[in-house]
Amino acid sequence: xxxxxxxxxxxxxxxxxxxxxxxSGTANNRKLIEDxxxxxxxxxxxxxxxxxxxxxxxxxxxxxDGSGNFKTVSEAVANAGEGSKRYVIRIKAGVYRENVxxxxxxxxxxxxGDGRSNxxxxxxxxxxxxxxxxxxxxxxxxxxxxxxxx
Length: 150
Description:
This protein is 23% helix and 21% strand. It is an alpha/beta fold. This is Pectinesterase.
């Protein structure tokens, strides 16, 4: 049954998906800013302040050209300590072709880019290659700042 359900979803067109979203009234149940302009309940007050702040000092900088502390986002994540202290990774403009994995023990990691059209992280995993979304993370974004959630 799972195989059949996945096959049906894969065959849905963009129009079908858009129509379904209109019928359900929402495109995503975990939006960072609700329709009424308020922050969602699951976002802590500290995270709200951090996302609204115009000055966030990164712990490390990732730059594909080598001008930062690391050349890949995965290296920066690996450098993060385990625990609950906020770890801010600034990712300079560029295209990063990598599958970034944030282990469960690496908590409170914040990615900060140079804008969604300038800082791009792209991977190449898919169901046909054996990857699933079961252990994948969600990245919630506001402007140039991202909170990794596992």
